[in-house]
Protein: DUF4218 domain-containing protein
Organism: Prunus dulcis
Amino acid sequence: ASRRAEKSVRNRAKPEGSIVEAWVQYESLTFCGMYLQDVETAFNRPQRNNDGDEHEEMMKREHPSHLVARNNVNYSTMVNKLKSSNSPTYSDELYNLALGPIRAELFSGCYINGVKFLGAARDDKLCTQNSGVHVPGGGESTNIDFYGKLTNVVQLLYKDRYQVIMFKCRWFDTNPNRAGSVKIDHGVLSVNINRTWYDDDPYILANMATQIVYLDDPKAGSSLESCSEDGS
């Protein structure tokens, strides 16, 4: 467990804060999955097969923070230790986040950094487009950028009025190793909107998202749409 915790540390000067941050991310995702009981997620799906070591190796590659959280569950104790030792990484916000959310609320849209985002169900009825989402890659296992559409805005409410805004998204499969998933023509990226991935891991922090628009790509066929950053 300690080795997995160390792998989540990105700031070696403040390892405790990095580990707690990984837990907060996992706790937020878990809460979303448990709150949306009518949606099948990684947390409520019936178990079909026990993949054993193969599954754990995949989790190490794709979701290291999830493994850290599952094997180091008592993070409120860790935060209390940060507080008692007057650690510079401690804050009241971190403490309240470690306690877990009080409740969650769903919205069809919101403003993030002055940009209007709308869920696809509402956005598709309008002439404008505000549901396109882009998140740059940069994880340990891949540098693939992620493209998708916003489906729901989830507001997690914590003690003392702290809050975390999360986006639930439908992610298009942009794996360049899969034929027909993406196409790059003269620097313009087109993605296959009929193929999705990460269906059991749809959530991101809202401030991670950049808004993009999708345009029909007549040369590529009806299943591919080109991506352009909003305003460009």
Summary: The chain has two domains: 2-100, 105-229.
